[in-house]
Amino acid sequence: MTTPLLSVEGLGKRYGAQVGCLDVEFELWPGEVLAIAGESGSGKTTLLDCVSGRMQPDAGRVEFNTRHEGMQDIYRMSEPRRRLLARTDWGYVHQNPRDGLRIGVSAGANVGERLMAVGARHYGRIRDTTRDWMGKVELDTARIDDLPATFSGGMQQRLQIARNLVTHPRLMFMDEPTASLDVSVQARLLDLLRGLTRELSLAAIVVTHDLAVARLLAHRLMIMKEGRVVESGLTDQVLDDPQHPYTQLLVSSVLQA
Amino acid sequence: MNHGTAADATAGYNFAYLDEQTKRMIRRAILKAVAIPGYQVPFGSREMPLPYGWGTGGIQVTAAVIGPHDVLKVIDQGSDDTTNAVNIRRFFRATTGVATTERTTEATLIQTRHRIPETPLAEGQILVYQVPIPEPLRWLEPSEAETRRMHALAEYGLMHVKLYEDISRHGKIATTYDYPVRVNGRYLMRPSPIPKFDNPKMDRNPALQLFGAGREKRIYAVPPHTPVKSLDFEDHPFEVQTWDRCCAFCGATDSFLDEIVTDDRGGRMFVCSDTDYCRGRREQAHAAPAPVEKATA
Amino acid sequence: MEAMVRIKGLAKTFTLHHQHGAVLPVLAGIDLDVARGECVALYGPSGAGKSTLLRSIYANYRVQQGSVEVRHDGRWVDMARAGPRELLEVRRTTVGYVSQFLRVIPRVPALAVVAEPLAAAGVPRERAEDQARSLLARLNIPEKLWSLPPATFSGGEQQRVNIARGFITGHPILLLDEPTAALDADNCDVVAELIREARIAGAAIVGIFHDQEVMRLVATRLYPLQVLREAA
């Protein structure tokens, strides 16, 4: 493959006079996991929203390598097209699983929804596929008809992940995927994400404030401060040999257990 | 048929109660609805002399299209003589003086609550449905802005989620009335609380079908000869209700039957819900096999 | 023999912004070529920059001057200038690094830890795990430990898991940072043997060996480093 999966150029977004993010530029290739780290207000969530099609930037371009039409600017395509991409080729994992699930319908319906949204009409096959994915995220398939509210936070998060993966997306966006979970549960979920991204060759952009999450999950790391990317490189580069003063501060602030 | 005259119309009211500007507004909405089959057109629903939930939407649609030479039939759950049907028929006789009838074949305009007549309709007839909730996606998506977007983008996967849930909970699609349909291969529509038994009648019906929701302020339409398909799964196809009895009065085996409890010892009988159809059959001397049957265990 | 590593004029300085901007030059004017079949041992006192040089070749550390070229896929790639995608590709198939300490990932069993780089290089998981097993056996890790995460292993056991992970792929360039530091004599021999086999298979190896005996056993050449005077 000679073109990247995602190409971001000169991306900027302001909220009035306030800078959301500025001059962000990077390419993402299949199978690469990129972590965007920074403290609150750093602009990392704004950046994620802009590159995932949820918020139109004020400047710059986000291009995605579509399956049939090559690199396309995601904000110049029609809304139906973008929404279709968001339902099929992209996945989005919210920090709070309740934001990414339909609480009123069963686990099976949650996981099967995207399939039905793209035209799956065979009940039996939808259930089979759903069970498959529940198994892959280590959920008990016997609970396929249970409501999400009866699952623990960690399990809800797995459900959210399965719900996104059924359409075999090539790119996943994750907003602090483990931040709302208990520490012990976080570790298990990170394991799962790590395994899945490798096994499925998923490209992913993961926003996190926790450098340990970046270390574990990501090949590449971008550090943001006040809307700007102050340092970027391979994860181990940035964490082991930080160049920018802010990065050095962040890295030295991490407590070792 | 009751032949009315304009002189019977109550003095002091405009023809069919609504002022002409309102009728124009509603007719424009109807035209738009007919041009986009199944699409819910918002309209400025007026205060009517009966509360919401009693058919104000249907009445406004009828009032906008009715003319002095129309012959009006009004049914409620298939019957011409229930309170609702009687009152609406009286309302239109009082405000228009048009002729009314109980015979489907004689009517040019039929307003209905919760049933489609058994007698097949013909070109030139208009069927007006009373609709409580027009939005098929409402239970799944409370936001009006979002459901409008879903209709605009034809994002209807969520409707199948509901049907999926039914099958997972009950082993089959549990919806038996107000069963969602796809109109002209495009818009998802709620046919109003008619039994799913009636859904096939909507498909390519030669009559014009109009739907009015007064409280929700929406009008939609299915033009004549338009395909209307009920949603289902490949391995759980759409099925209509069947009975193992026939009508106790006319012997019909192809109509929607109401169950009537006849005594306090479990006696019951099944009769056609469509009173006109039943009477028509009896007049053609299709006698019933036996008057009353005890219920089996 | 074919050159695999070409370092020219490499200089590396640490700037500690939060220690009053202290500037620590660690490497300067480093020139080093390593060919297939060579095992170059970096030696010198503590603080001379041996580990730093190794990490710079791996692009774990950034350099301020010079070039660090490696032979990858029939061409030269400058690790000091290549983009992240290329660096990841080079690490995946060409340059392997055995660090001094195993970075422990919670709850991943030792077998998976060792098999992972091979699986990442495209080998089917079954075969990768078979090779992992034989390496672990060779390094005297008891079988009952293979399904356990290395977090609870002894230092020496962790180090051997680390070594297995580093050698399993047969990368043509190997960087070894004190591979035998925590090992007993027997296991030192096993590692020395692994290094020798890799050399014979055509790998170019750069290593730091604190144990003089091991260094004598495995090194084909020595490269001395000195502590730099602090910048003014």
Task: Provide a descriptive summary of the structure in words.
The complex is a heterotrimer of chains A (257), B (297) and C (232). By secondary structure, chain A is α/β, with parallel strands linked by helices. Chain A has nine helices and ten strands. Chain A has helices at residues 44-51, 79-88, 107-117, 123-136, 153-165, 183-199, 211-217, 235-240, 245-253; strands at 6-15, 18-28, 33-38, 59-66, 70-73, 90-93, 171-175, 203-208, 220-225, 228-234. In chain A, the strands form two sheets. A six-stranded mixed beta sheet of chain A has the order 6-7-8-3-9-10, sandwiched between helices. Chain A has a four-stranded antiparallel beta sheet with strand order 2-1-4-5, covered by helices on one side. Chain B has 297 residues and is an alpha/beta fold. Chain B is 26% helix and 18% strand. In chain B, strand 8 and strand 9 form a beta hairpin. The mean pLDDT of chain B is 91. Chain C has a five-stranded parallel beta sheet with strand order 6-7-8-3-9, sandwiched between helices. In chain C, strands 2-1-4-5 form a four-stranded antiparallel beta sheet, with helices on one face. In chain C, helix 3 packs across helix 4. With 232 residues, chain C is an alpha/beta fold. Chain C is built from seven helices and nine strands; from the N terminus they run E-E-E-H-E-E-H-E-H-H-H-E-H-E-H-E. At the A-C interface, helix 6, helix 8 and helix 9 of A face strand 1 and helix 2 of C.
Biggest sheet strand order of chain C reads 6-7-8-3-9
Q: What is the percent of helical residues of chain C?
A: 25-40%
**Alpha-beta classification of chain C:** alpha/beta
The greatest inter-chain interface is formed by: A-C, 23 and 20 residues
Mean pLDDT of chain C: 91
Structural class of chain B: alpha/beta
Cα-atom radius of gyration of chain B: 20 Å
- What strand order characterises the main sheet of chain B? 1-9-8-5-4-2-3
Tell how many strands the DSSP assignment of chain C holds: 9
What's the total helix number of chain C? 7
> What is the arithmetic mean of pLDDT of chain B?
91
Q: Categorize the overall geometry of chain C.
A: globular
Shape of chain B: globular
Largest sheet of chain C: 5 strands, parallel
- SSE series of chain B: HEHEHEEEHHEEHEEEEEHE
